[in-house]
Amino acid sequence: MDIIEWFTQNQQIIYIVILMIFVGIEVIGHVPSVLHTPLMSGANAIHGVVIIGAIIVMGKAEPDNYLALILGFLGVILGTLNVVGGFVVTDRMLEMFSKKKK
Questions:
Q1: Which of the listed residues 42, 45, 73, 87 has the most CB atoms within 10 Å of its CB?
Q2: Distance between CA atoms of 40 and 11, rounded to whole angstroms?
Q3: For residue range 36-75, what is the model confidence (pLDDT) as tens digits?
Q4: Domain boundaries in the chain?
Q5: Residue 25 class from Cβ within 10 Å (0-12 exposed, 13-18 middle, 19+ buried)?
């Protein structure tokens, strides 16, 4: 299968991805800097989907397919770090708005 045939078969998906890129740039470009950190910490917490996807990749991989197993393991590790980091940043931001204890 050559690349032109692949583009022809997946033309609609390619258009959707290009549209998503432009919409994402437009939406993120208009976010005030005050809201950037809360939105990013929440987005990091949503990356639990990456962890589930990586677990599915590792579960469906053949036992001798080391590339899929390694990539799945890295996906679980990096996704977990991202989720934990999102919760830590969110927790620190919420502490800024809480009343000081005497």
A1: 45
A2: 31
A3: 677 776 677 677 888 998 899 899 999 999 998 999 999 8
A4: 1-30, 35-102
A5: exposed
